Amino acid sequence: MNKIKALFSKKDMETVSVKEVDEIRQEEVIKEMVPRFKEQFELNDYKLLCKVGEGAFSKVYKAVPLNTTIAKNHKHVAVKIINKDNLHEKEQKEDSNVGKTTTRQQVLKEVSIHKLISSNCENIVQFIEFKETRSNYYIVQELLDGGEIFNEIVKYTYFSEDLCRHVIRQLGLAIRHLHSMGVVHRDIKPENLLFNPIAYQPNETPKLRKSDDPNTKVDEGVFIPHVGGGSIGIVKLADFGLSKQIFQTNTMTPCGTVGYTAPEVVKDENYSMKVDMWGVGCVLYTMLCGFPPFFDDKIDVLTEKISKGQYTFLKPWWDEISDGAKRCVRKLLEVDPHRRYDIEQFLQDPWLNSFDCEKVAQQVQRKKSRAHARMPPHVDTSLLYSPAAVAMRDAFDISNAVQRIEQEKKRNLLTSLNEDSELLGFTATTGLDDRMFQLRLNSSTIVKRRKHKQELLANK
């Protein structure tokens, strides 16, 4: 219609022909018929609206279900689309060992695990269905409108201890459900935590730490226990591309060829679960202060720091964080898995089970009817792609990869099983990309800030 209006504005009405108008109308009808995204061509049951995320081998779209059965329960969904050609290129670059897991099996394993653990836990993103076409794999799942917790950390710099408790406890509940089903996530990080938003209520007197810049620190708003704050409500764990089923709940035996499994492995499957607890520790540390526990611009040095658990509670950023929070972090970032918190110990931690604002929250609840809900503060989205944000993402990837590798090394000392033999009892694989990531930290302001502070401490 805009082109038709433009046509009339350029010519006198008498000189515009019917043919010209019809041609423009046909052109616009054709445009409406052609899908906006190429991934739509083979997908009939969902209309893709916009892209909400992208990974190395996949894209995630917000979509509308056209199937009335699904539409009854889900107004919108998230569709993770994995292109087969991209996976095929990855497969060709890797060694073609006999019995090697194929990329199709990798996708099927992600789907199988997600479907297995999706029900009966409100803190796990719900699986809806899986579709395979000639060109793509489509994983349809619940859509959470709030987005990633990672973005909220960037927005607010760090979270209050109460908001940290709110987020990390829900992550703990998700992990407890996973572990009860014999599944290890193996990629716990803020990017894989999604949330449903709640109404934002600004603080009348925003609380600042001594290390804060009052000109840039964004107020996370009023926190209400068991409800949330900073617009963060229910938190859910997502992305099971690197997940692994350690044992089957019906038999409580390890997955794989049981006859070849060492007795030490059978007795100590709980050891493998501790990989997730390390990830919880890294997330908690980051939410409390705004940067990850392990950083270095050299990947080999960073890897060594992670392996040895070399982190500190840097001043001044940790000066006002409670001893209880620090103790909880220490218990999670314990290098020895046998001394590290398991999920039940974590959920019973004293710090996790007390809110700083319980008394204040009761007053807030009474005033809630008089309070005006507002939109969360607007933050420049370019911050999500800043060197500091990129460095934070990379640091989590490296930390999780190091823990997975360490765990597999120790397991391989006890058993001759490899990842592929698990497929005998389970149709899929460990993930879409289990390789180490390249770090680009030279320009990171976080790295420079930490180095500068360490130099000052060394010179004292």
TrEMBL record:
It catalyses: L-seryl-[protein] + ATP = O-phospho-L-seryl-[protein] + ADP + H(+); L-threonyl-[protein] + ATP = O-phospho-L-threonyl-[protein] + ADP + H(+). CDD domains: STKc_RCK1-like. ATP binds at residue 80. It is an enzyme of class 2 (transferase). GO terms for biological process: cellular response to oxidative stress; osmosensory signaling pathway; regulation of meiotic nuclear division. Its EC number is 2.7.11.1. GO terms for cellular component: cytoplasm. Keywords: ATP-binding, Calmodulin-binding, Kinase, Nucleotide-binding, Serine/threonine-protein kinase, Transferase. Belongs to the protein kinase superfamily. This is non-specific serine/threonine protein kinase. The gene is KAFR0I02100.
